Amino acid sequence: RIAEMAKVTQLIDNEVFRAYVTYATIILLKMMLMSCITAYYRIRRKAFANPEDVPFGKSENAKKFLRTDTDVERVRRSHLNDLENIVPFFGIGLLYALSGPELSTALLHFRIFAGARILHTIAYLTPLPQPGRGLSWAVGYVVTFSMAYKVLKTALYL
Fold it and tell me: What is the DSSP string of 70-139?
């Protein structure tokens, strides 16, 4: 049991792993913030998905607030895009951090991914003209594939 505890301590002492944890936490918090932004837009635009979500006007009166709104849907799509891209980053990024990359290379991957996701959200919510949003998405996607390639190269000796 003590030997297992030593292994966990070694993992925490690993600078690349700590960098991964740092940037994974940053983008996770950003993704969680999207829920708050969605709620803000729903209340501001008075556009709710369920009758029980309407904070004002109950029963029959609540039905007029059951509608879609373009701004609310834009925030929701941005949040869904986060789910589609950040979740794979968590798994691949963890494997990458454990594959023994150089700290400088790992930091470059993690920082570019986090920056790209933040820029993607800004481009989606502002909205900025294309290709800004598309490029920020593509950059994050390429970073994730780069880490996956390194993991496969290390694990399978590609």
Answer: HHHHHHHHHHHHHHHHHHHHHHHHHHHHHT---HHHHHHHHHHHHHHHHHHHHHHHTTPPTTHHHHHHHH
